[in-house]
Amino acid sequence: MVEFKHILAPTDMSEASRPALAYAAAFASWYGANLALLHVVPTFDAIQMPPGTLGDSVQVVYPSSREEVIATMQRHAEAVGIASASPYLMAEAGDPVDTIVDQAISMPADLIVIGTHGRSGFSRLLYGSIAEQVLHRSPCPVLTVPPHCAAPHSDARFKRILCAMDFSPAAMQALGFALDLGRQSRGVVIVQHAIEWLADEEPRVHAHFNVAEYRTYLLEDARARIEEVLAAEDRLHVDVQPVVSTGRAYREILREAEARAVDLIVMGAQGRGGLGQALTGSATNQVLRAAACPVLTVRSA
């Protein structure tokens, strides 16, 4: 059974980070987990600024102290409404990605919850590229939350889950998470496979085989593979709905997620390469950037 006992939530304390903190607190409540909030700054040390014009003296800038940052984090947690989760507050100096990953390893964290957008400029902590770098280096699953995401359910958890399937080890691991989360809420899990090759219009040049017939074969083979995978899984208390489509994987995932109004997308952090690939690193990133709901990415065991 999926259990999260130690949750790490990096935050830049911007308005855009509030939905991610709400989901982090909800997960902590659902699983009785310890929640740690992390804010990363460039430095706590005094910074010497060079003189602007000839004869000016060197300016010394004193950043906020660790204690001041933690006090600000406490006020932010109260404003967001997650103070009741009693989060452990951490303020660290360094590179955002390195610091987040190091903290996740040292805890050790079972889940990282991070926003996909945040402040711009030097004070930025959470931005699309930062979240993506954390995802690809994280030792644990990562839940990315877009800034305009709906608030988490207080009791239903995730009733509609979309699991992207390309039959890679990471996707198989993601399927286990999706089914377990679906069972815990007695919800629906849509298992989707997208066939990218021959997905668009017919070729203009003469083909030496029947393109339409081969596309039909690919669709039927994908459906059979999904059913074979699901036959080995525990489907008790969860409604599993296989879906096979043709088109670019990330577009099909986003289209299906919108059409089904899913609460969560679950996918592998690394997909299968080669001609028949369905998920690649770039496809995962495209889904993270455009999804309207949280995305849980899982690495292979």
List the topology elements:
Elements: E1 6-10, H1 18-31, E2 34-41, E3 47-49, E4 59-61, H2 66-80, E5 88-93, H3 96-106, E6 111-115, H4 128-137, E7 142-145, E8 160-164, H5 169-185, E9 188-195, H6 211-231, E10 239-246, H7 249-260, E11 264-268, H8 281-290, E12 295-298
Parallel strand pairs: 1-2, 1-6, 2-5, 6-7, 8-9, 8-11, 9-10, 11-12
Antiparallel strand pairs: 3-4, 7-12
Name the features:
37% helix; Rossmann fold; 8 helices; ten-stranded mixed β-sheet; alpha/beta; single chain; 301 residues; elongated
How would you describe what is shown here?
The chain has 301 residues and is of the alpha/beta class. The protein folds into 2 domains: 6-46 and 61-145, HUPs (Rossmann fold); 160-298, HUPs (Rossmann fold). The chain contains 8 helices and 12 strands. It has helices spanning 18-31, 66-80, 96-106, 128-137, 169-185, 211-231, 249-260, 281-290; strands spanning 6-10, 34-41, 47-49, 59-61, 88-93, 111-115, 142-145, 160-164, 188-195, 239-246, 264-268, 295-298. Strands 5-2-1-6-7-12-11-8-9-10 form a 10-stranded mixed sheet, sandwiched between helices. Strands 3-4 form a two-stranded antiparallel sheet. The longest helix has 21 residues, at 211-231. Residues 118-127 and 273-280 have low confidence and may be disordered.
